[in-house]
Amino acid sequence: MDGNPLGPTRRDVLRGALAAGAAITLTSCGSQEDAPHVASADQWRQFQGATLNFISENTAPTAAIAANTRPFTELTGITINIVTLELTALVQRVALDLASGHAQYQVIYADPYQVLAPYQRGLVDLRTMQAEPNLPHLPGGVSDFIPAQMDAAGRFVDPNAYYTLPYDAPTMIWQYRRDLFDKYHDRMANDLGFDPTPSGERTWDEYYRIANWFNKNAGSDVKYGTGHQARQHDSLMNDFSNVLWSYGGAYFDNGKEVGRIGSRDPGPCRLDSDAAIAGAEFYQKLLAIADPASTTWDWDGVGAAFRAGRLAMCPNWHEFAASNEQVMPGKAGYSPLPRGPVTTANMYGGTGVAISDNTRPHERGAAWLFLVWATSSRTQLANLKSKAGGGTPTRTSVYELPEVRAAEKRPSPMPNMLTAAAVREAWQPDKIGLRPKIPMWNECNTAIFTQLSRMLTGGATPEDAMRTIKARVDQIVDRGWVA
Amino acid sequence: MTHAADHSPVLERARPESAKPKQPRIGFEGAMMTPGLILLAALSIVPFLALIAMSFSHVRLLGGVSLDLVGLRNWARFFTDADMWMSWLRTIVYFVLTVGLEMVLGVVVALCLFRVLRGRNVLLGLLLLPMFVAPSIVGLLGRYLTDSTFGLYAWVLRSFGYSGDILGSPISAFAAVVLMDVWEWTPLIALITLAGLSSVPQSVREAAAVDGAPGWMTLRYIVFPAISNVLLVALLIRSMDAIRYFDIIWVTTNGGPADATKIVPVRLYETAFRFFDLGYAAAIGLAMLAFSILIARTFVRLLDVRGLTR
Fold it and tell me: According to the model, what pLDDT value does residue B158 have?
C-alpha cells in the first residue's frame, strides 16, 4: 500500500519527537524564575509567596526549626522546605548544586571546613545583605554572636567579610558520671593523691589515671573508665586534636590563625614536631586503657556507650547533654577538657548558615530573611526549649536571658544548658580548639585520621604516624585547591 | 499487486542502473533503533567520553563545570600513588576470598540441597533470604551483630575468649566484611548450581552408581563436567559484582581501621565525592572499568571456547 506522499514520514515523526523532547528538557533545565516580590511597607513581607529550600545536616537546631516552621511562614509569607542529610551527603549535594549554576538550595548549612573553606566563592558575602536598606538588619549586628564562633564559622581569609552566621556550636567537653565520681571521690582522692573532680584544671595525665582507676576499682558500676570516638573517621581527628593542642602541637605554623580565619596556603605541616609526637604518644597510651570498642565508635557510638552505662567518662560534643539527661537524668556532669603540659583546647565543631551565590536577587533577599530569623535570639531560645531539637545558642544575648541562666541548674527545662558553664569556658579565644580552615581540609583530615587509626591498631608508632601525616598533608597542600 | 514477471532476472538485468530505487541510508530497523541508540549514547557513551576527558583535566565546579587540561598528571599520580596500589592489592585479595568462598560454599550447599528430597523448596526459600536484603542493610545488620556492646557475634566470640573488637582491628574487620558478602551472595551461587545439577541426566548418574563409582568420582567425572558451564556463568556474575563492592564496607567500617578495608571502589567514592578531585577520580574509574573488562573478557573467552556464547 502506498503511503500519503504529502503526510509526514516516519523519519519526520521521529525527528519531531526528538526535537520536542530536547526542547522541553532544555527549557525545564534552563529556566529558573526569581522569587516573587511585592512592594510592601513591611520588610518582612516583601517576598511573600516565595519558596526557599534549606539544606542542612541533621542537627539539633534544624530538627527544632523543621518541627515548627510556621512562625517563619507567618512572619514572612515564605514557605521553607528543609532537607536534612548526614554531613558527607550534604557536602556532596552542596558542591553539585554550586556547580550547576542554579540555586536549588538557596540556604546552605555551611560547615566551615567542608563547605565554607572549599566553596567560599560560591557563597554570598553577607555584608552586602546587612548593608541593604530594604532588608531587615541583624538584631544586635554580628557582634552579638560569640566572637570566636563568628570568626571560626563565618569568615574565611578576609577578616572583615563574613559568609555565614553562626548557627550551631557543638564543642567537645569532658562528660562524666557525676554519681560515680561522688560515690568514689574519697577513695580515688586517697589512691591517686589529687582531687579527681573533673574541671579544666585537671591534666590529661590525671584523666588517664582516673580512667585507669575506674578500670581497676569500679567494675561493678562501669566496664571502662574512658571511651573515645576513635573510629577511622572525622571523629578520631577531633578526639586526638584536643590532646595534640594541649601538648603544644599544631597542624601548621600560626595554627590559631589558620583555625580562626583560615588560609588558602597554610605552609608546611608541623605534626613532626616533638610536641606533636609527645601528644600522639600520650593519645596512644590513653586509648590503650580505653574501651577497646573505641576504635569502632564515632561521636554517636561513644555517646551511646556513655548513656548505656559502659563508661565512667568520655570527651564528646556538648550537645549530647540533652540525650544524656533523657536516659540518665541527673547522673551526668560536664566540664571543660583537661589541660596538657602546654595549654588547654576544646574542639569546636560549629557551623553557620549561608546563602548560595547562585541565587537570584529576590531569592537572595528571601534567604536573608530566613538567616536573620533562624539565628535570632527568639528562634534560638525556642530551639533550646524544643522537644524535637535542642541545639545551643550562638548569641551572647541568649545566654544572658534570665530563663536561660536559670536553666543551667537542675532541674533544667533546657538540658543542653547544663553544659553552659563548661562551654562558656571552652569558647574563650585561648581555650577553643580550631582545626585548620583550609580548602583542602577534607583530604588532609582523611590522611590524618587514617594514620591515627594505623597508630591505634598497632600499624605504626606515634612518631611514624606523625611523620607520615606530615608528608601526606604537605603533598595535598602542595597540589593546591581549585574549586 | 505486482506481476511475478516484474521480478524476472532478465528484466532486472535489462533495467538501467540509474532506475534502481535508492535504498535509504538508515532502514526501517535503523529508524526504530534510533531512540534506543540515542538513549544509550546519553547514558553510556557520552559519560564515558566525558570521563576520558576528565581524566586528563582538573575539573572546576564553581560557576558551572569546566575542565582545565592537565595532560597526564592524573594518570602519573595514579601510577605512583602507593595508597592506591595498596587498595588494588586489597581489592584483589577481597575479590579472590569472596568469590572463592562463595563458589565453594555455594556448590557444597547446592549438592546438599540436591540430595534433600523432602522439604527442599522450604529449605531453598530460607536459604535464599539473604540475597533479597539490600547490601546496605546487610552492612547495618553486620555492624549491630558485631557491636561489642550488644552484638550477638561479639558475645559469642567473647565466650570463646576473643576479647578484641571485631570491626576494630584490621584483620578481623577485613574478615568480617568478606563474610558479610559471602553470607549475602552464597545463596545465589547455590541457586544457579542447583539449576545446573537438575540438568545432569538421571540415567548417567544411575549408570555411575551401578558401575560402583564412589561419590567423589561421580562428582569429579560426571557432575562437575556437566555443570561447569553453569558454574562459569555464576562466577562471571559474582565477579562483576564483587569488583564494585562498596555498600557493606561503607556502612560498617568506612574503609578502616587503618585503611584495612579500603578497596578501590571506596577510594574512588572518597576521591570523587569527598575530595571532589573529579579528574583523579575519573582516572581511577577508568582503571576500574579496564579491570572489569579484563575479568569479564577472561570469563567470556572461557565460555566462548565451550561454545556457550553462540
Answer: 87
Parallel, antiparallel or unpaired: strands A172-177 and A332-335: antiparallel
- Crossing angle for the helix pair B82-115 and B170-198, to the nearest 10 degrees: 40
| Cα distances (angstroms) measured from residue A327 to each of A172, A174, A229, A322, A390 | 20, 18, 20, 9, 15
**ipTM of the complex, rounded to two decimals:** 0.82
Average pLDDT of span B172-192? 95
Q: Do residue A118 and residue B276 have CB atoms under 8 angstroms apart?
A: yes
Question: Which DSSP state fits A353?
Answer: E
**Closest chain A residue by Cα to residue B147:** A293
Least confident of A388-392, B9-13, B148-152: B9-13
Q: Which three cell numbers stand for residue A362?
A: 529576590
Q: Which residue of A has its CA nearest to B82?
A: A472
Query: Would you list the DSSP string of A1-15?
Result: -PPPTTSPPHHHHHH
A232/B62 CB distance under 8 A: no
Best of B146, B276, B278 to mutate (most A CBs within 10 Å, chain A) = B276
The yes-or-no verdict on residue A147 having pLDDT over 90 is yes
- Smallest Cα distance from A101 to chain B, Å: 5
pLDDT of B5 strictly over 50: no
Question: What length is written for chain B?
Answer: 310
Coil, helix or strand at residue A317: strand
Of B148, B274, B277, which is closest to A88 when you measure between CB atoms? B274
Predicted confidence at residue A39, as pLDDT, reads: 78
Interchain CB distance below 8 Å, A232 and B31: no
CA A387 to centroid of chain Cα atoms: 21
Cross-chain residue pair B169–A95, CB shorter than 8 Å: no
CB contact under 8 A, A91 and B274: yes
pLDDT band at B308 (very low <50, low <70, confident <90, very high): low
Give A353's strand partners: A109, A165
The pLDDT, as a whole number, for residue B2 is 42
Q: Which of A55-64, A138-147, A196-205, A416-425 has the lowest mean pLDDT?
A: A55-64
Residue A295 to residue B165, Cβ atoms within 8 A: yes
Place of cell 601548621: A252
Interface probe, candidates B1, B69, B254, chain A, greatest A C-beta count within 10 A: B254
pTM confidence score: 0.85
Maximum Cα–Cα distance across chain A: 108
Chain A hits for B147, Cβ within 8 Å: 293, 296
Residue B116: predicted pLDDT: 87
DSSP state of A112: I
Non-local (6+) Cβ contacts of A337 within 8 A are: A172, A173, A174, A200, A242, A246, A315, A344, A345, A346, A426
What distance in Å separates the CA atoms of residue A140 and residue A136, rounded to the nearest whole number? 12
Q: How far does Cα B12 stand from its chain's mean position?
A: 55
Residue A141: phi, psi to the nearest 5? 65, -170
**146-165 of B, contacting A, C-beta below 8 A:** 147-149, 163-165
Side chain identity at residue A335, one-letter code: S
Task: Tell me whether residues B256 and A453 touch, CB distance under 8 A.
Answer: yes
Nearest neighbour of A231 by CB, restricted to B34, B61, B256: B256
